[in-house]
Amino acid sequence: MAVLAAPAEGPAALAAKAATATIPIIFGTGADPVLSGLVPRLNRPGGNVTGITSMNTELAGKRLGLMHELLPQATRFAILVMSTGFSYAPTDAAIEELRAAISNIGGQIEILTAGSNREIETAFADLVQKGIQGLLISPDPLFGSRVVQIVTLATRHAVPAIYPTRMYAEAGGLMSYGSNFTELHRQVGIYSGRVLKGEKPGDIPILRAAKFEFIINLATARAFGITIPSTLLALADEIIE
What we know:
Blueprint: E1 4-6, H1 10-19, E2 25-29, E3 49-53, H2 60-70, E4 76-82, H3 89-104, E5 108-114, H4 117-129, E6 134-137, H5 141-144, H6 147-156, E7 161-163, H7 166-170, E8 175-179, H8 181-196, E9 207-208, E10 212-217, H9 218-224, H10 230-235, E11 238-240
Parallel strand pairs: 1-2, 2-3, 3-9, 4-5, 4-6, 6-7, 7-8, 10-11
Antiparallel strand pairs: 8-10
Helix pairs in contact: 2-3, 4-6
């Protein structure tokens, strides 16, 4: 028996689903798999598809809350999303969540889009012109392949940012909050093994991530002249000195 494992992002699983209705597909995605069209339900997805969601797209409100705790006087925030996925249902849901969250703190949220290296650079120039005080980076696959560029631009423009995965913080990003992708990939492997042993993917419930990690890069904070509140330091799962 063959199994298609798509542990990186939802678009790969959507492409696999469009290609076959018979070969089992095990996905790993940061988006809501129902909203994105991967499965009709979480408990018994049916068909030939099952997998794991890291819920990274759904954590936008939490990331904004962490940024607000870091910068309590800030009122102008922005989120950078991939332009080709701007009308993508999970992205739209995350933006609506952000708009609701920002209204509670009396601030404003700008939506910046980019679909290439040049557009990423343009987006950073725009946020500086607009006086953005805090930036969120969405968990889009393009940005995950442009970690060094994005972290470098945030540092160059002195824009405090929070990122969706630890690799940004390890590359010099200020803070990150999101799922543990090593665990996500391990679970994709476990699910693949279950299917190879004979279980039907449509009978295996979608697994939702329950463990998230908050990383703070103190070296970057010092470079920005930012003092991390003790409350945030206490919440951190890891502090990069």
